From TrEMBL:
Keywords: Signal. Residues 1-22 form the signal peptide. PANTHER family: PROTEIN YCEI (PTHR34406:SF1). This is Polyisoprenoid-binding protein. Residues 36-200 form the Lipid/polyisoprenoid-binding YceI-like domain.
Amino acid sequence: MQRIFASAFVAASLVVAAPIVAQQANQNSAEVQAGNYALDSNHTLVRFSVVHFGISDFFGTLPGASGTLSVDPRNVASAKLDVSVPVATVSTTNKVLDAELVGDEWFDAAKFPTMRFVSTKVVKTGKSTADVTGNLTLHGVTKPVTLKATFKAGAVNPMNKAYTLGFNATGVIKRTEFGVSKYAPMVSDDTTIAITAAFEKQAK
């Protein structure tokens, strides 16, 4: 009897899991569906890193991003990106530091609650890569920044059935240029930004 129940359970599990296992993500950027997309905040993360006193790399994350993307694979240069990130969500391995980072000597989240990137130029650099230049506003200062973006894949999310695009992007900023200068240069001025993002296609 136990064997019968066990076999039935395994069979049912395979039936339920089959649609997810069968899902095939398309890594061909030329086959991306053109249209307007909204950022999937639950599957997007902004990470930053600095060199801590010249000894080691130290990382933090900024969850909760929101934004939009318009894209046409036949005209990559026409793509438009607008993403905002709440800086009060900053998280590191140190709760005391987290509280310090939202204060007025760092992000000053009370006065400048949002970091925002708005694209101004997109240049295709490879089959699945592009340089995305835009205006980054952080700590009340706006400066041009270029992100190196890589298309990961496109597919229908098997959970919510939304056609979704995935991207990775990296860039480097000098934090002192945005008025975030505490401990610089002992804690490096150069700050690396790494982003993993998912965008869900919106209905027309």
